[in-house]
Structure formats: structure tokens, C-alpha cells
Amino acid sequence: MNATVHALLNQQINKEFYSAYLYLDFSNYFEDVGLDGFANWYKIQAQEERDHAMLFYQYLQNENQKVTLEAIEKPDKKAECHMDILKAGLAHEEYVTSLINEIYDAAYKAKDFRTMQFLDWFVKEQGEEETNAHDMITKMELFGSDPKSLYMLNQELAARVYTAPSLVL
Ligand code: MG
User: Fold this and answer.
1) Which of 42, 47, 73, 97 could form a disulfide with 126, with the two C-beta atoms 3.0–4.6 Å apart?
2) pLDDT digits (tens, 9 = 90+) for 95-144
3) Is the pLDDT of residue 77 over 80?
4) According to the model, what pLDDT value does residue 59 have?
5) How far, in Å, from the CA of 108 to the mean position of ligand 1?
6) 2 CA to middle of ligand 1, Å?
7) Which domains does the chain have, with CATH numbers?
8) Which of residues 85 and 78 earns the better pLDDT score?
């Protein structure tokens, strides 16, 4: 495997675990303010990010490439209100999209077609993640200022259940 592609794939394991950590911190925030549905939604989001990390890990192992695990950063959430969390979520997903694109670009330049195919799932996934983050902001803008509506939104988010990723390696 090309050294740059290898380094970026290895780095992405850490980035995805960091994402899990960040969303777990978001879940903590909502747990503390009593919005258990939001807390549930972000806890499941954290599980999905852990799955992403494991997919990068497994892919490198399947390709007989060395995996090096690095320290996971402390979550850097600074939130004054619920909306700050949701906006931080969108900004984070846009950042992750840029990381996936960077790996894809390196794989493309190295003519690493297998890695490009592996990454295709993540390219699509990032589109869905950004849409979800946008939807959360829109719903909070519409309903967040009314306690009854916020209660209903919290109930809706409480219904989210974990599903394993559709990509199996
Ligand atoms: Mg992810």
C-alpha cells in the first residue's frame, strides 16, 4: 500500500474514535440537562462512530497493513446552549467529510482502486451524516423555543435504535 494512503487510513481510526468520544460528550450534555431523547440519539451516534473506527482498523488488517493506535484527544465541546451542540455536530461532520475526501484523493493518485472502493461507502455515509446534522439544527430552530414541541422532539429522538453498519468487511 502507498505510504500516504496507509498513514491516512491509520489516522482515520483515531479520528473516528475521537468522533465517538465527542458524541458521547454531546450525550453527556443532554443527559445533564434532562433531554434523554437527545442523549440517546448521540449515544447511538457514538456507537456508529466506533463502528467506523473498527471498519478502518479491519480494512488495514485485511490488507496486511500495520495498525498503530494513537492517543484519543479530549473532546473539545464548548457549549452555551443546545444549539451550540448541534452546530458543533454539523461542523464536525463537515470536517470528517474533508478527511475522507483527503484519503480518497491520495488513493486516487496512488491508483489504489481497492481503497477507493472501500471508501465509497464512507463518501455516501458522510452525505447522510451531514444531512442528519442539518435536520437536527432545523428541528431545533423550528421547535426548540417551545417547551411542548421540544418535549415531542425529545420523544422522537428517544426512539432511535442502534443498527450495525451496512458495510461488512
Ligand atoms: Mg464517522
Assistant:
1) 97
2) 999 999 999 999 999 999 999 999 999 999 999 999 999 999 999 999 99
3) no
4) 98
5) 21
6) 23
7) 3-158 (1.20.1260.10)
8) 85
57 Cα: distance to centroid of ligand 1 (angstroms): 13
Spacing, Cα 147 to ligand 1 middle (Å): 31
Distance 11 CA to ligand 1 centre (A): 13
- Max Cα–Cα distance, the chain, nearest Å: 55
Q: How far apart are CA 40 and CA 87, in angstroms?
A: 18
Supply the pTM of this predicted model.
Answer: 0.96
> Residue 48's closest CA among 77, 145, 9, 40?
40
Neighbours of 98 (CB within 10 A): 10
List, as one string, the DSSP characters of 21-45: HHHHHHHHHHHHTT-HHHHHHHHHH
CA 67–ligand 1 middle distance (angstroms) = 18
| Cα-to-centroid distance, 14 and ligand 1 (Å) | 11
Could you report the per-residue pLDDT of 53-74, keeping only the tens digit for each? 999 999 999 999 999 999 999 9
